[in-house]
Write a structure and sequence with these properties.
Number of helices: 11
Radius of gyration: 19 Å
Distance between the termini: 25 Å
Structural class: alpha/beta
Mean pLDDT: 93
Helix content: 40-55%
Low-confidence stretches: 279-294
CATH class of the largest domain: Alpha Beta
Strand content: 5-15%
CATH architecture of the largest domain: Alpha-Beta Barrel
Oligomer: single chain
Number of strands: 8
CATH superfamily of the largest domain: NADP-dependent oxidoreductase domain
C-alpha cells in the first residue's frame, strides 16, 4: 500500500455496539456501497476482530477486490474506556500499550496498514494529561514506521484539540466528535478544523439530534427534495464540511444514507437546520467537500 493517505470516502460506516452482528453488518455495509469503515480496539463497545471477518467475507464474495478498496480507521482506547478484555498489558507504559493495541488491530483486521489511527479520547475531561501526550507520541512513531497513513483524535473539546495540535509533531488529520445541534453542530470546532487542515468526523448525527430529525421544518425540507429527514441531516453534514458516520443496522437505511448526492440544500435550508434549535443568532457555516463525480 502507498504511504500516502488515500482519498477518503464521503461517508464512514460505524461499527460500534453491533456485538455478534458486527461481522454480518460490516459485510452488508460494504455490499450496500460503504467504502469507509470505522472501528476501535475496544471490546467494551466494538468487536474489531469481527469487523476484520466481515471485510474478509466481502473480499471472498467479490464485493471488493481487496482491503485496499476500503478506508479503514481504528482507535487506541485508554484503560478508563475499556472493560477487562484489554488489547494490551495495562501495567506497561502507555507507549507500549499503544503499540500492543495497534499490533492487535493489525491482526484483527488482517492488514499491516490502517488509513487512520485515532486516539479514542483523552484521559481527562479538561486539558491533556501526560498519558495522552505519551500515547500520541507512540502513535506518531507508528505513523513514522508506515503503520498508518494519518492520525486522528476523538471525543475532544476545542481547547483539547488546539492543545494537541500545538504539541503534536504529526498533526491530527481527523477529529471525530459526537455532534449536537444544540451546540451549533460544533461550529467552533469545525471552524478550527477547517483552518488547520483537519477533517471533522461527526457521529450520532441522528440519535443525538432527534428533535431536529423530527422537526416540522426538517420534514418540510425533506418533502421539497423527495428525501427522508435522515437524508436531509446527512446532506446538511456534508455541506457543513463534515465526514459523517452512520451506524444503521438496516439495509434499506444504509442505501438511503448513501443516496444523498443527487440533491443540494439551499442556503436558507442550511440556515434553518443550523438555527432551529440554537436560535437565530448563529450564522451559517458551510464548507464544500468533494463528492463522487466532483
Amino acid at each position: 500500500m502507498s504511504s500516502e493517505l488515500p482519498e477518503f470516502p464521503p461517508y464512514l460506516y460505524g461499527t460500534a455496539w453491533k456485538e455478534d452482528e458486527t461481522r454480518r453488518l460490516t459485510r452488508l455495509a460494504i455490499q450496500q456501497g460503504f467504502r469507509g469503515i470505522d472501528t476501535a480496539n475496544q471490546r467494551k463497545h466494538y468487536f474489531e476482530a469481527a469487523v476484520g471477518e466481515g471485510i474478509a467475507d466481502a473480499i471472498r464474495d467479490g464485493l471488493i477486490a481487496s482491503r485496499d478498496d476500503l478506508f479503514l480507521q481504528t482507535k487506541f482506547t485508554h484503560r478508563r474506556g475499556q472493560d477487562d478484555r484489554l488489547p494490551y498489558d495495562e501495567k506497561a507504559p502507555i507507549g507500549t500499550q499503544v503499540k500492543q493495541s495497534f499490533a492487535s488491530s493489525q491482526e484483527h483486521l488482517a492488514t499491516e496498514v490502517v488509513d487512520s489511527y485515532v486516539l479514542h479520547g483523552p484521559t481527562t475531561a479538561k486539558g491533556l494529561a501526560a498519558a495522552d501526550i505519551e500515547a500520541w507520541k507512540a502513535m506518531e512513531e507508528i505513523h513514522d514506521a508506515g503503520g498508518t497513513h494519518a492520525l486522528g483524535v476523538s471525543n475532544v473539546s476545542l481547547d483539547q484539540l488546539r492543545t494537541l495540535y500545538k504539541l503534536a509533531r504529526t498533526k491530527p488529520r481527523f477529529a471525530q466528535i459526537r455532534c449536537y445541534a444544540a451546540r451549533q453542530w460544533d461550529r467552533d470546532i469545525r471552524g478550527f478544523c477547517a483552518q488547520s487542515g483537519i477533517v471533522y468526523q461527526g457521529f450520532s448525527l441522528l440519535t443525538a439530534n432527534r428533535n431536529v430529525l423530527n422537526h416540522d421544518k426538517t420534514k418540510a425540507i425533506a418533502r421539497r427534495h423527495g428525501k427522508t429527514t435522515a437524508q436531509v441531516i446527512f446532506r446538511f453534514a456534508l455541506e457543513s464540511g463534515m465526514l459523517p458516520l452512520t451506524g444503521t443496522k438496516d439495509a434499506a437505511h444504509m442505501a438511503q444514507d448513501l443516496d444523498i448526492f443527487d440533491f443540494q440544500l439551499t442556503v436558507a435550508e442550511v440556515r434553518t437546520i443550523e438555527t432551529m434549535v440554537v436560535g437565530e443568532k448563529s450564522q451559517p457555516f458551510q464548507i464544500r467537500i468533494r463528492r463522487p463525480g466532483d
